[in-house]
Amino acid sequence: MKKKLMLIINPMAGRSGYKLGFGEVMHTLDAGDYRTTVYFTERRGEATTLAAQHAGEYDTVACIGGDGTLSEVVSGLMQVENPPALGYIPMGTTNDVAATLGLPKLATEAARRIVTGTPTPFDVGSFGDAAHFTYVAAFGAFTEVSYETPQTEKQALGHLAYLLEAAGRLPRLEPYNARVEYDGGVVEGNFLYGGVSNSTSVAGMVKLRKDLVSLSDGVFETLLIRNPQNILEFNRIVSDILSQNYDSESVTLLQSKKLRFTFDKPVAWTRDGEAGGEVREITLRNNHAAIHIIA
């Protein structure tokens, strides 16, 4: 008897790229002993609802879309007791999680990975009491670019759309005064950027060394960038980030299971490239090996 697979598709992701080779994807899954039921999403957040309501009925859940679609599906799986393994066919603009997992860019190859791959433990973040994130929760410089870039531009220009949107924000960067409590210490200061991640790539722009990142070690990597006082200091920060130097006066990398951020005013966050709301205080926790991704 064939195993049952739930396939959630975001038809808008990656310039509707799911249409290319979709027949081959379905054939690969069928030949891999899966009976696949397809669910198309029609609005933001629907993938979470679908996964939460129906994942327990299947042996495996998979999704076609970008990091946002994957994040929604993971949020739904976090509401399911003993959730099934998750397969991912990346079809977005940046695909940070796919890059970290080393998933193929070709949809048919990614489908074959679902058939032949091994479910791998994956840590999931809690953002406050009710929300989750898959690979990053961040505030500050450029974090709003991904969700404020118009969808039509994403589809037409791909990753270039993010870069163009980010360039227009350079003159408007502002620091955020924050107190960051983490396992074993406290950091305070004016930060241009703060990101709590479980990925070697964030927005395709910030890269973390692979020897520092493990997807199932029970801790997150937190990158904090202090506000530069002048253009020379700003250039040094850029150089440190590009050279992956995380031990300087302006760039700090922490590893922690739990973090608490306190600001002097409400600050906007993003979760996996989508709007996460404004908060003055927020606690982020690592849910160790909460799901398994086939990789």
Which key features would you list for this structure?
295 residues; alpha+beta; Rossmann fold; Tumour Suppressor Smad4; 2 domains; 9-stranded antiparallel β-sheet; 15 strands; 39% strand; elongated
- Could you say what the CATH topology of the largest domain is called? Tumour Suppressor Smad4
Quaternary organisation of the protein chains = single chain
Structural domains: how many: 2
Shape: elongated
Quote the average pLDDT. Answer: 84
Unreliably modeled segments: 145-149, 153-170
Distance between the termini: 24 Å
Q: Based on helices, strands and strand pairing, what is the structural class?
A: alpha+beta
Fraction in beta strands? 35-45%
CATH architecture of the largest domain: Sandwich
Using only C-alpha atoms, the radius of gyration works out to 19 Å
Q: Kindly provide the name of the CATH class of the largest domain.
A: Mainly Beta
Order of helix and strand elements from N to C terminus: EHEHEHEHHEEEHHHEEEEEHEEE
Could you explain how this protein is built, in words?
Helices cover 26% and strands 39% of the residues. It is an alpha+beta fold and 295 residues long. The protein has 2 domains: 3-117, Probable inorganic polyphosphate/atp-NAD kinase, domain 1 (Rossmann fold), CATH 3.40.50; 131-288, Tumour Suppressor Smad4 (Sandwich). Strands 5, 6, 7, 8, 9, 12, 13, 14 and 15 form a 9-stranded antiparallel beta sheet that branches. Strand 5 (119-127) and strand 6 (131-133) form a beta hairpin. The longest helix has 12 residues, at 231-242.
